[in-house]
Each structure stands twice: as structure tokens, then as C-alpha cells.
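Hi support team,

I've been running sequence recovery on a batch of backbones for a student project. Most finish fine, but this one hangs at about 90% for roughly twenty minutes before it completes. I'm not sure whether the input is malformed or the queue is just slow. I've pasted the C-alpha cells below so you can try to reproduce it. Let me know if you need the job ID as well.

Thanks,
M.K.
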């Protein structure tokens, strides 16, 4: 089970607690079976809980709520995710600088060969 899947599901449910599992799977771009697996793991860890609307006309209507532990875990995962993305961004900036340098050198050598 991927920490990214856990993090993305926690973020999604925090903002959209009334999503069906099918809607959540579609939003995350994963299969319904995978979503169910990840959701059950988060329930077992005590990170989310399910609330059934007994008075609802649709008896299959559920709300997925982050527990206190789930909110704490999401905050921790958000910080970790931020650090990973920040490092990727910095690495990408360095790669862009290397490519610009290389591109400028190729242009210079190409222009010099035309002059000769």
C-alpha cells in the first residue's frame, strides 16, 4: 500500500467526506478494489471512520470522516509530501539550468562552425 495513496485519500476525504467509494476511486485514478483496500487499511489504522446516515432515503449513504489520529497523520504526510516535492522542484530547476547551459553551448558552437 502506497503512502501516496493514503495521503491522497486522506486529502480527498477531508475535503469531500460524502463521496462514494466509486467517486473517490475515479477522483484518485485508481480502481474501486484498490480504493476499498486502501480505505479499509486506513480504517484499521484508526485514521478514518465511517458514519452511516440512518435517516437518509439512501441507506447506502456514508460519510467518511478523518479521526483526530487521521488529521495528525495527514498533517505529517503533508509535510513529508511538501519536502519531497520541494526537492523534486529544486532538482528540476538544476536540470533546466544544465540544459540551458548545454543548449547555449550548442548554439554557440553551431554559430562558430557557420562562420568558419
Amino acid at each position: 500500500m502506497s503512502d501516496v495513496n493514503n495521503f491522497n485519500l486522506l486529502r480527498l476525504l477531508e475535503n469531500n467526506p460524502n463521496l462514494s467509494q466509486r467517486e473517490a476511486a475515479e477522483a484518485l485514478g485508481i480502481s474501486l478494489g484498490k480504493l476499498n483496500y486502501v480505505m479499509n487499511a486506513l480504517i484499521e489504522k484508526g485514521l478514518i471512520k465511517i458514519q452511516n446516515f440512518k435517516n437518509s432515503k439512501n441507506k447506502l449513504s456514508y460519510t467518511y470522516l478523518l479521526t483526530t489520529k487521521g488529521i495528525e497523520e495527514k498533517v505529517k504526510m503533508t509535510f513529508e509530501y511538501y519536502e519531497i516535492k520541494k526537492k523534486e522542484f529544486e532538482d528540476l530547476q538544476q536540470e533546466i539550468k544544465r540544459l540551458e547551459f548545454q543548449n547555449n553551448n550548442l548554439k554557440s558552437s553551431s554559430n562558430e562552425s557557420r562562420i568558419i
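--
Follow-up from support: It reproduced on our side and the slowdown came from queue contention, not your input. The beta strands are 48-52, 62-66. No action needed from you.
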